[in-house]
Amino acid sequence: MKTNSFITLAAMMIPAFYGYAENLIVIETDNIALVYDVADDNRMYQRYLGKKLQDTKEYSLIPNGPEAHLTHGMEDYFEPALHINHPDGNPSTLLKYKGHESSTLDDGAIQTVITLADPVYNDEVKLFYTVYPEHDIIKTHTTITNGEKRPIELEKYASSMLHFSNGDYYLTQFNGDWASEANAIETKLEYGKKQLDTKLGTRANLFCSPFFQLALDAPASETSGDILVGTLAWTGNYRFTFEVDHRGELRIISGINPYASQRTLAKGETFTTPEFIFTLSNEGRGKASRNFHDWARDHQLYKGNETRMTLLNNWEATYFDFNEEKLKNLMGEAKELGVDLFLLDDGWFGNKHPRHNDTQGLGDWEPTADKLPNGIKALTEAAKANGIKFGIWIEPEMVNPRSELFEKHPDWAISFPNREPYYHRHQLVLDLTNPEVQDYVFGVVDRLMTENPDIAFMKWDCNTPTTNIYSHYEKMNQTHLYVDYVRGLYNVLQRVQDKYPDLMMMMCSGGGGRSDYEGLKYFTEFWPSDDTDPIERLYIQWGFSQIFPSKTLCSHVTTWNRATPVKFRTNVAMMGKLGFDIKFDDMTPEEVAYCRRAVANYNALKPIILEGDLYRLVSPYEGEHTATMYVGKNDGDAVVFTFDLNPRYKQFIWKSDANVRLQGLNPSYRYRVTEIDRTDGSDLPLGEYSGDYLMTVGLPLFTLTRLNSRVITLNVIQ
Ligand code: GLA
């Protein structure tokens, strides 16, 4: 009886929603289309994913592909997107179409929601597709609602399942380690399964970034080839599964890593998965990156369309060894450099267990009296006197066992009741599934801000992945811990944002551990790596720039790899959000003077670097040189950064075929080409050129001087 009434209801609903011949559901951006079909069996199949066709009717000519959102226990032999254990022991789910509808959201996005349900068990699955037409970005997530009388268990609950039927697939992943993040590695997918996943708990990344590129048919370049770029907006365990079957068809399943995370759903309860965000480009990786950058600035990143502050951070200048006087001196240096903000890093708190090193004090957010006798107030005042803003480092989700907080609330830490804890950097993770702990973490920010309303910036760190995976919170289902931790974090961050909307925040996690788009709804930028060696940074920033805009990539000039000239180090940092982590004692007066000029130049170039279009011209992976350019929006001025890493003896870089072609310019405009702080002996022919010439013939951007760098500006001649 139940089955019959379900089919009747579906049959009644279908005609009301369909706009196309057959039963097609067409989800389109300006350039890409994702098309589903509801077949006679009332199950939904993916018909098409690719470049949008001019005539929508022609989607009817394409045969159906696999079932869209495959489930465990039915006819399919490969990895499912959904696996539900029903209370009667049946582990299978069959999804039939119920209806779909589209609406326009407040931010202009168009959202299509497709409702599917199991006719036997009544569990309902909604597939959400949110489309940003001009950016060619599609966000997709699902909700799963328990329509049964008793609790159900979710074994697998992906955000998205996409199918491809191309000749070959080339996957680029971005992995590494602490201080070596986001290295691009491309491999061809063959029959079988490849999984990229992490189970770090508090963060998505340490060894593998939560994004990938998938080139279709042939490897993509920066400017050509079909490529899908996707990422999961989730600051925790994620999993991407790429499975090629015996017919050469590929499925990509994206979502929270279901590892040790079965979800129990009570009757009527709904589970919402995070967003899987993707774009498809027919013009290679570069276009896909620009799609992400533009979309992020307009729709996802906190204060995405506002500029960013340059800063001086004391971490690498002092580490834990500072006092009020030293900090005041550094603020004087920040003023001289001309940066916007002074950022006080780790080591300012704790009295019973002062934070003189990383073994103690975390959790006790009181200024250390012998270091800062006049508290934070004296520092915000000093910043004001220097005409700069003040920012402060916190790591509020973590605790050192040697702290007053831990002495008072040992049960607030995620740890086993009956085993020796494993410490990562001498600390434990606080249990954000517990509302009391959420209040405490929010209180860390709230108290600092209430007592020091002049704080303009926070660096929010998170150094410890979740180990000792056990919650002492009495309401906790232990298999919910990984997921509910992240949700607890978002609750806290939302409270911070609601109460302190002007506060700008850097997301940091022992380097680039937190580098995901859900986190960036609350943060204005992130710290890609503790490795600030400029040569390494060229690779790390190249990796993260694939999906994150330059205004999110904090890049600091430090003493790492002092063998590189300060100009080289500064030019690398200028490609992102410029900062300094260095004191004047570490530089010659000439180098300090160079940095001052660089800050002034950067300020003038900010609208191009931070808001413009990124073109990666020559990859550092090619070995000897690298170049990147930014073009101001609406055919504006441009800037090119070039770096000579390891020029080879007798490398004929002055021949015209060694010219580098620029990109993104207007061919009919004329540009004045100049070099900022030109180094002696440089042979770049400066002057006036058409955009056509610069993009067709190009310029000899590189030199044979090891560790030389150039900043070349292109100004439109009116
Ligand atoms: C982490 C961060 C660093 C610095 C230290 C302070 O390692 O990534 O930038 O803030 O913590 O302890």
Write a structural description.
With 718 residues, this protein is α+β, with helices and mostly antiparallel strands. The chain contains twelve helices and 36 strands. The strands form seven sheets. Strands 5, 6, 7, 8, 11, 12, 14, 15, 19 and 20 form a ten-stranded antiparallel sheet that branches. Strands 28-27-26-23-22-21-30-29 form an eight-stranded parallel sheet. A six-stranded antiparallel sheet has the order 31-32-33-36-34-35. Strand 26 (455-460), helix 8 (481-499) and strand 27 form a beta-alpha-beta unit. Helix 9 (534-544) packs parallel to helix 10. The radius of gyration is 27 Å and the shape is globular. The protein starts with a helix and ends with a strand. Residues 1-20 have low confidence and may be disordered. Alpha-D-galactopyranose is lined by residues 315, 345-346, 358, 393, 461, 463, 508, 510-511, 527, 530.
Tally of contiguous helical segments: 12
* Strand element count: 36
> Which term fits the overall shape?
globular
The percent of residues in helical segments reads: 10-25%
Strand content: 25-35%
Specify Rg, calculated over alpha carbons: 27 Å
- Structural class estimated from helices and strands: alpha+beta
